[in-house]
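Lab notebook: predicted structure, single chain.

Context: the supervisor wants predicted structures on file for every construct in the current expression panel, including those that have not yet been purified. This is the next one on the list. No modifications to the sequence; it matches the entry in the shared construct table.
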Amino acid sequence: MARNGTSELLKRARQQAIADVVRDRRLRTQRELVAALKDKGFNVTQATVSRDITEMGLVKIRVDGDMVYVLPSAEAAVELGGEQRLRQLLCDLPIEVHSSGSMLVIRAVPGTAHAIAAALDRAHWSDVLGTIAGDDTLFVACADERAQRRVRKRLLRLGR
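Prediction complete. Output recorded below exactly as produced.
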């Protein structure tokens, strides 16, 4: 039990360090974020940083021609989960939605697929069985083709 509590404290400290670094510096890649955390004394893997990015709701925006990580807006930070977060992401980020049987393939801005997938998972839509995300592409598994059409329509409506 103490071990779990210790890891939770370490996670909170690491995520606070991520927030501080993202506020202070323009970080374009997870690799740059890993290096910045190592400079602050956190020896982490890129996989750990990827999970933290998703949990914290970090997104990438264009700043002076570079796509850099930023913290979610104050409104989004209050409602980090669910449909509100998904709506914010879809309104702020251009996406392409393609259908394939009962699956949706969503193309997004590089570095944002994980955040979109996490928000979709937290929205708990009954037609969505699960998501798999890469850097700029995510797959959404739906119950069947009718469910896939409903999810597609709902996603496109949220992104307006």
